[in-house]
């Protein structure tokens, strides 16, 4: 089975970069990314490649190379579904905000809509690939919808979870630790479909790193990987609080522990809490699935990872209030960073949002600077919480264009995202322009505490 036309539904943080790399590595395949969001597609097609809607180091060069050659962005979903031999589903699967499973289960509304659309349009056999992270056994639902169209078209469903991390998406796609492809191993058609996808990845990935498995294992592996990663962050964050009480230093602990090859050194960076579109959503989803099978102990075990993360965000914000003599009302707090990690403009579930919300409840005046996040996005994130009206948010929050401006006449600075540029700020000048005592709260352990204390700052570093 040779694939010549790929369509990807969903031009987001997953669909966009993944398809750009496939197009770059496989010039003989036409790759079209479709999305119902016209503004997003227009941005992907912007003549100036620096205006593509997703900020990822290295991505705009790849788009520049492949776009118009064999990489296309379009809103003509029906037409592209019809043309494709292989369709990736990369639409969002947010946590449900209503009804059964509210606040826990993944909302599969968009996935189902895609399946129904494919079923309605398809006139030739197609391979449908789940790229979005989904609850285990979603492939069964897709199959049920696709196989009951009655028009004789045959579908093969594969699971091919994405393991890229934002900020390093290009590198992760170029050199993945592994690619996972789940499918129907029991039939020739199933195995052929899996091979077709293996052949695509083989254009740049050594075959030893391309794993095939049954479809349920593949779906569950993605949830498991994210749960384990998030668990490590919550584990080290739990230790950070204990370090603060005992005089231990969390970086020293992480280093000593991480050098044990059975534990490993990655993902032990203590922080103000993990964010991003995946960790919380996937763990909630895992908890929900476990509960639905009556596995309450399994559910409670994983839920604790989220509870710890919520605690970490809250206690960082509370520390600011306590340190500022138990009130921040009317005080200016500069927040450096809004994205959930450096090198991305994505803010979903960013710890900064929750810290800001806490401070706003305390009537602080919050001034925010992030190198890549727009003012529009920051106000949208605050409004999404639903705790205050947009006009109230705008009364208390100001978004500025530089860190220096944010810190001017501030009572305190809170560092929320580990952007490299924050390391090189002129901290002497910032100190001079702040109110005294000048407090600094480093939620990322990015800055040198001793240097800052020498300047005159009162410094709190998470985990020290
Ligand atoms: C999303 C999920 O968050 C992640 O769990 C999953 O693994 C992949 O999909 P991401 O790419 O980051 O990841 O989401 P997002 O940036 O929101 O992009 C999804 C896109 O799908 C949006 O641009 C949206 O407009 C589009 N979409 C959604 C459609 O084109 N059709 C739909 O029916 C629904
Ligand atoms: C994650 C997974 O890493 C990726 O494999 C999956 O496909 C999607 O979810 P992402 O959310 O993009 O990727 O970023 P990641 O680097 O995992 O960071 C998630 C959050 O954890 C960030 O807020 C980050 O700052 C935080 N983090 C990460 C820590 O606080 N400490 C660490 O040691 C690592």
Q: Largest sheet, order of strands side by side? A: 3-2-1-4-5-6
Instruction: Detail the poorly predicted runs.
Output: none
Shape: globular
Helicity, in percent?
40-55%
Distance between the termini: 57 Å
Mean pLDDT: 96
> Rg to the nearest angstrom?
24 Å
Count of helix runs: 18
Biggest sheet statistics? 6 strands, parallel
Give me the secondary-structure category. Answer: alpha/beta
Strand residue content: 5-15%
Bound molecules: uridine-5'-diphosphate-xylopyranose
Q: Please report the total strand number as a whole number.
A: 14
Summarize the structure in words.
This protein has helices at about 15-25, 40-45, 60-65, 75-85, 110-120, 140-145, 170-175, 190-200, 215-245, 250-260, 280-290, 295-325, 350-360, 375-385, 390-395, 405, 425-435, 450-455; strands at about 5-10, 30-35, 70-75, 85-90, 125-130, 155-160, 180-185, 210-215, 330-335, 365-370, 395-400, 410-415, 440, 460. The chain has about 475 residues and is of the alpha/beta class. Strands 3-2-1-4-5-6 form a 6-stranded parallel beta sheet, sandwiched between helices. Strands 11-10-9-12-13-14 form a 6-stranded parallel beta sheet, with helices on both faces. Strand 4, helix 5 (about 110-120) and strand 5 form a beta-alpha-beta unit. Helix 9 packs across helix 11 (about 280-290), helix 11 packs antiparallel against helix 12 and helix 12 (about 295-325) crosses helix 13 (about 350-360). The N and C termini lie far apart (about 55 Å). The mean pLDDT is about 95. The site of one uridine-5'-diphosphate-xylopyranose has 19 residues, from helix 9. One uridine-5'-diphosphate-xylopyranose (UDX) binds near residues 271 and 275.
